[in-house]
Amino acid sequence: MTEIRYAERKDEALWRKLDRFLPEGGFAEKVRTRTAYVLCADGVLAGILRYHLFWDEIPFCSLLFVREECRGRGYGKALLGRWEEDMRARGYDMLLTSSRADESAQHFFRKAGYGDCGGLLFDASSRAQPTELFFRKRL
Fold first, then answer.
1. pTM, 2 dp
2. Which of 52, 69, 88, 103 is the most buried (most CB within 10 A)?
């Protein structure tokens, strides 16, 4: 059985194993604001999604992660679909997300109907990395 629900305090230990970017205190805030989802498959946490509001007005999926051993089963698509449905129900007409240029997630987002809308280079900073590609989807 597959269940997608908002993250709860009880999920924090497992969440932290999958999300190394959320700062201390960030998980509690995501739970409080209901801006994080978990996907459980047969009672096991298989994937997570969290978002924030870009410019305080456009939902931005800042992390979608499915455990490696759970990939290829449609869990990422299900998480993204649930988030999209919720954002549509809240009246948003556009969504944003991003992926590094060297990650396969860019292909996942394009297949899900997200179009390229720009990129950022962090080549001369302490955050040096490949280009961050940005994607947009109109609802």
1. 0.94
2. 52
